[in-house]
Amino acid sequence: MPTSKPAQGNIPVPQLDDVQLETLAVRAGQIRTPELEHSEAIFPTSSFVFNSAQEAAQRFSGEIGGNVYARFTNPTVSMFETRIAALEGGERAVAAASGMAAIMATFFALLKQGDHVLCSRSVFGTTNVFLEKYLCKFGIEVDFVDLCDYQQWREKLQPTTRIVFCETPSNPLCEVADMEELSKITSESKHPDGALFIVDNCFCTPALQQPLLFGADIVTHSATKYLDGQGRCLGGVVVGSEELMAEVHSFMRSAGPALSPFNAWVFLKGLETLSLRMRAHSEHALKVAEWLQAQDAIEQVYYVGLPGHPQFALAQRQQKSGSGVLSFKIRGDLKAAWAFIDAVQFISITANLGDTKTTITHPATTTHGRLSDEEKMRAGITDNLIRVSVGLENVDDIIQDLARGLSAIS
Ligand SMILES: *Cc1c(COP(=O)(O)O)cnc(C)c1O
Question: What is the pTM of this model?
Fold first, then answer.
């Protein structure tokens, strides 16, 4: 009976001493099998075999390391986790099936009944729903505050506050929070286990911003956005200390929202071009923002990279560049905003962001549609607001397409 081919050998992946982020994004975390593949392998297997009954027992008990079952670990997923931990500058990362699964696992693993969560009002809509509708059912209290109003953060902080959570920059108005300030506020909580400052770094990615350097304890990601970068897969990841991530991983293997190895592989390939893409997204977005600002039919442009942005200096300190998402208010009403959106030719009408393809969204009737009128007003989500995630098409073509939208309303 033919047996499997003998292993080709063992060429270890190179050590990475003292290298920069761009190099980590291409090379960190790689595992090489005896087949000596150059590109990372996908391991589409749910379980792993053992040499003996004794070894099985030892691996199950954790007495010796190694894979057991793909809900716990999978080599392709592990490569992605190691790489993103290196990029964020954290000790360990835990991957999840989606950005929401990453957020869910983090909150469930680290909170208990009676704890309090303090959260920015301008977080991803589903994060909001998860906290308000589900977490609250388990005896966890949640308060929402305005992202840049530090007085409010301080006032709402309670002795039971265990998690302080934000996204910066915010979606869709690109407000920038001072992470060092929020980290300081978090440390004022009297929670007996200490409070944790968590940043959803989906908009910037570690290529542009590393929240752990600014006092965050944990970073969460929807890998679905810029980490993939090409709109192919759902995934998420959490980064932090070994101790905290052990808790998150323990929840993940018990609750089950594991990342598929195929998706992890897509993210590994996405990370290899992350720095280049984020630089290009930022350059394009800045050009589009500058162009929009010069148009009479545009009332206001919201983009972190514009020198007129209210937190420009802070953003310069925290971020390498502005990332690819911007929004703007047209002179006109809801009908005009929809007419603008309907007049573009190739820009995709979709709520997704962080894609090579430029996308356009009307927040008031889509991503923020479930907010009451008062909540919308408070969040600055007006009917004349349009959000664009600027992609990697030729930037002059992107501007020309937006000009079609503009001609529909002027
Ligand atoms: C999309 C998104 C999420 C949720 O991620 P999914 O992968 O869609 O579950 C969380 N936070 C932010 C900021 C997002 O943009």
Answer: 0.96
